[in-house]
Input
Amino acid sequence: MVVELTTLNPASGEPAISHIRAALARSLHVITANKGPIAHAYAALAQDARRAGVEFRFESTVMDGAPVFNMVRHNLPGCKIRGFTGVLNSTTNVVIDAMRSGRTLDEGVEEAQRIGIAEADASFDIEGWDAAAKTAALANVLFDARVTPLDVGRRGIGRLTPERVLELKEQGKTIRLVSRARVTPNGTKLRVRAEVLDESDVLAAVHGTSSLLLLDTDLMGTVGTVEINPGVHQTAYGVFSDLVDIAKAL
Output
């Protein structure tokens, strides 16, 4: 078995894709916490795993260890996923909350780096690349979209100012970086955008390192999963849950 834990390359998914392909070519089970391969090459990698007769798991790629892919795989049999909405990047939550308290964007990034949640290159978070990779990964797995992060309409929070955030706060509003996807007759529509939300909106209730994902299904309506202020231990648990899942499948 190979556990692949390299950092995200949102532009290509490499070198993680090559690592996984090499492992599958040797008929090894693979677990990854790197969303890049799922966002760029999921269909091909899943096919390689089937041909090799091995398991390929990736629960920690979106929302750390919270059940997302396993929830759909094990608990929503027969349900068709028609779309999703989520707040999936915790760094931008921390940055926006910092600006709501009067600090600058850079100070918010420093806070996210201090608590260990920012990507190695924080611009991946601020400009929406991390959220775009998660959006593409979800779409590829949940409705076989066969897209990459480059197909996701993306507008991050890089131009957001403390003045604008405080102005919205006085109006009872806030901003969150929201991922949206929808299957349409004309294809899959994907976007990541900083959205102005009423403070009463369920998406606005996501703070700090928390995340929220709502799935639109044909049989169960809207169902979702939420994680409250996770850390590295929750990401590690996602890898552990994949190990358990593979062991059960053998």
Summary: DSSP finds nine helices and nine strands in the chain. The two ends are 12 Å apart (CA to CA). Residues 160 and 192 are 15 Å apart (CA to CA). The chain has a mean pLDDT of 95.
